[in-house]
Amino acid sequence: xxxxxxxxxxxxxxxxxxxxxxxxxxxxxxxxxxxxxxxxxxxxxxxxxxxxxxxxxxxxxxxxxxxxxxxxxxxxxxxxxxxxxxxxxxxxxxxxxxxxxxxxxxxxxxxxxxxxxxxxxxxxxxxxxxxxxxxxxxxxxxxxxxxxxxxxxxxxxxxxxx
Length: 162
Known about the structure:
By secondary structure, the protein is an alpha+beta fold. The protein has a single domain, classed as TATA-Binding Protein. It has helices at 2-25, 28-32, 43-56, 67-73, 93-99, 127-134, 140-161, and strands at residues 33-37, 63-65, 82-87, 109-116, 119-125. The longest helix has 24 residues, at 2-25. The radius of gyration is 19 Å and the shape is globular.
């Protein structure tokens, strides 16, 4: 009986591990980006709420780049609603970025806000991919600052989703 239980537990663990690997590594987008689908809100309402929540959660909005409007001004017709929100104006960013210039991919945080056939979505980078390589150049405090900033960013995106 113990052997059967051990076998079943092993099968469950193996299937769970297979699903995890397939979900994350089968789709590199999920490995590198955090995306949420917004429920029952239009593009403009979502963009406004995102900016409010970012500022309220201490991730100061630096600038909003209305990509779809810029493309329309250049003659592109019928491009989906798309803006990029630059936020996470964290203290000490100048020192951190001069020490590790490649972190400009993370700081400031760049959040894509776009509307496709399925609805409005918010997408941001996952910090862990960059930190895996660049952490050698950073102090523990700097690493913690980036991780905490992105933890707050994901929490904020989840708040906007609802």
